[in-house]
Amino acid sequence: MIGNRLKLARSAAGLSLRELSDRMGNRVTAQSIGKYERDEAMPRSGVLIALADALGVSVEYLMGEPGMVLQSVDFRTKRMASKREEDRISAMVLHMLERYLTIEDILGLPSVCWDKPRSAPYPVVNDLSEADRAASALRYDWNLGLDPIPNMVELMEDRGVKVLFGPLSNIDGLTAQVSREGVADAHVIVVNEEHDGERQRFTIAHEIGHMVLDISAGVDEEKAAHRFAGAFLMPEEAIWAEVGKRRSAISLAELFELKIIFRASVQAITYRCKDLGIISPALMGRMFNAFRELGWRSPPYEEPLAMSGERSGRFERLCFRALSEGAISESRASELLEMSVYDLNRQMGDPSFPTAGVSCEGIGSEMRIG
What is the sign, positive or negative, of the torsion defined by CA atoms of 272, 173, 204, 304? Predict the structure, then answer.
């Protein structure tokens, strides 16, 4: 039966039953689609194809086994405007994660489990400054030293947490835990794909805070995770080495240099300097007033020298590997990567290394290296 898959795909597309019916040209009624989702009826083959086309998925996807259950999802900062939007994002998380886990299964690769730090959970009792100690402890547990982290996405995937990017409406990110039959639960961080790279890095660090902090009652959970994120990205020793321990003024030019070093926003750096007592709250207030006049404190919160988003590329590499080894077909790879067969062929036939003058034009996916 297709009920669970159909409802998941419809929720991921953000469609109501009636809107899906309209998108299908009213080939079947909203009431009929509801019966399919409740497994009270099974669509005919032509209707099944029309449903898949309307939802942008394959018939094979709709006919597949559910396999996964979203055990928990923690939306950061704000709740959605509607239950429908929450359902859309939850379904999107499952859909993206399922594609990732599918290609691992096809290649026979073990899905890396969450490498929970040996000292976690780190307690935050009464003072937000204890989030700094938790961040230092995590860096120690993971042998990260004090240097800026080059790629937060790769770091988390190495530690067994899938990092996904998608349209998240008015929230920055979320954490989710997905249960699977017979294997360990999958841990996921989902980040708003529309944000600048430095904001995405902070979001990932913030979500790590939610995963490793045991925040006691009376302590603001979001503020604790924010404090943790700043400390994890910018250890106090590293900030002191670059900025000093006491400052009465900091220029924008210096802040931009720090932005390049720490791969964090000017505003996050300023806030971190205030948390460490390098600048006074009064100076931070004046600086944030200046940021507001420059338009950095209002959506879309754009600063100069915006970073591009970080990606690990592992999922794409695995898909290309499976296709090269004949483990999946072109159409299956196209579906998993959510790109056209034409674009897939272009990427497979255009290796990103020097070709000693050999043109790859016209060479399709049949070309194999090895």
Answer: negative
Q: What is the dihedral of CA 79, 169, 208, 220, to 10 degrees?
A: -30
Here the tokens at position 167 are: 């349209």
Query: CA of 217: how far to CAs of 78, 122, 127, 256, in Å?
Result: 20, 14, 11, 37
Residue 254 phi, psi (nearest 5)? -65, -40
Which one of 35, 66, 97 terminates a domain? Answer: 66
Domain span at residue 365?
311-370
Six-digit token string for 265: 């926003």
Q: What is the CA angle 248-251-257, rounded to 5? A: 120
Q: How far is CA 296 from CA 5, 99, 293, 302, in A?
A: 42, 36, 8, 5
The model's pTM is 0.81
Judgement on whether residues 61 and 76 belong to the same structural domain of the protein: no
CA distance 171 to 116: 25
Calculate the alpha carbon distances from 164 to 158, 173, 324 in Å: 14, 10, 24
Whole-number Cα distances in Å, 11 to 37, 212, 247: 11, 30, 51
DSSP bridge partners of 175? 74, 189
Mean pLDDT per 10-residue section of the chain, whose length is 370 residues = 84 89 94 93 92 85 68 59 74 83 87 82 81 94 95 93 88 83 81 94 95 88 94 97 96 96 97 97 96 91 91 91 94 88 81 40 36
Look at the chain and report how many structural domains it folds into: 4
Tokens for 129? 């400054």
Here the CATH number for the domain that contains residue 196 is: 1.10.10.2910
The β-bridge partners of 178 are 70, 186
CATH number at residue 3: 1.10.260.40
Question: Both 292 and 340 in a single domain?
Answer: no
For residue 109, which amino acid is it? L
> Last residue of some domain: 304, 327, 353?
304
